[in-house]
Amino acid sequence: GGACIRRVRSTTITLSLAVATRHAPRPVMPHSQVPLCVDLDGTLVRSDLLAESALALLRRNPLYLFAMLAWLLRGRAVLKREIALRVRIEPEELPYDPRVLALVREADGRPRVLCSASDQVLVDAVAAHCGFDVALGSDGRTNLSGTRKARALVERFGERGFDYAGNEAVDLAVWSHARGAIVVDAPDRIVRAACAMHPDARVLPRSRGNWRRWLAALRAHQWPKNLLVFVPMLAAHRLFDAAAAGHALLAFAAFCLCASSAYVLNDLLDLDADRQHPRKRNRPFASGALPIAHGIVASPLLATAAFAIAVALPRGFLPWLAEYSVATVLYSLVLKRLVVLDVLTLAGLYTLRIVAGGAAIPVPVSGWLLAFSLFLFLGLGLLKRAIELQPLADDARVAGRGYARAHARAVCGSGMGSGLAALVVLALYIESTKSAALYGRPQLLWLLLPLLGCWLVRAWRMATTGRMHDDPLVFALTDRASLALFALSALVVVAAI
What we know:
By secondary structure, this protein is mostly helical.
């Protein structure tokens, strides 16, 4: 009995000591010894490595989508590991938040920990590039996010034994165990919740102006290209036909939405190539100004809205819009990396807008117009490639394309030849019976040849001397000389009627 009493007393004392130790105040550590733990996605990097790596894998082979669904059924950690083993992320090209990088550099002497729900393979690469001392990530079994991340940090550094920088709602579980909080680029509700836990939290606010970023992501400045749907209406002299004008406006809206859907998809699939380009690296998704997840949602929504509008138009319009949509997706996935086939696709997409505009009214589209369009826009597509090749070194290649600097002479020669062919088609049309049936003074149309020829020569001269940096059509809509030539051409056409 005495032995039992002694064992009970010993157990009671042990438990009392354990409870006392647990609730005893933790020794205050010097600031220089408190680890700085930094989240990766959305905090250190203005992007999401799971989304980036998944898009990179889909760019290599779209059929990986089905494999990803199978991996996801086994858990997010498995999905991240399987993707990470198949792609390579270049850490030096990622869009880092300079404010967080400054915090990491200022923490010289403190243990610096990169702690992320991204896979360990990717976290290791970023940690090595940025100079972190420790890298913690998902390991293929455990998704290191939220409470799991909090548990891992507490086990390693103790309760209130670390400072943590994060940006999402799941980071609240980590901040509840941290000594200090750094809130990076987070919504106001997350900032308020973090500050409720840590009144002295450091807040790095998010920048404003999302609507401007979305206009850039949707490429609103490219929408004037879709004015080509009005060409059949103008060519048929139905400018004052209210019904035709209404249908053409709806067709214009549908093509704007469909084109923006394709632009968003193209930018998501082109992240690596855009970040290697001096100007394209500033695009909203490549720079991290807009979340990749938002783009993944926006692209199909825009396409759905475009087809909803198409349903209200004559039946012949919908197949052309569908063909345009499929062609743009194929262009983003494959065709843009194939020499010659890429510019042929671009010329076809421009011409397809004209054909779709005819189907929207509806009015038949002349073969002369289609031939002129194909040659003209093939030349402009080659002009765009010449602009991209101009600043490259002798052995360099255009990022994300199949062209090298050595192709410059052939590209320029072919592009100028295509422009000349468009002028020949226009001349033959002016002499045909078709123009005589539509115009009262068709001989005035000959003035279009020197006006268009002048613009083409000027465009090629500016491109080959490095003075044109944009898409040729976008340049034309902002260049005073080009606008003056277009206005004169319009006056010639009106006078010929």
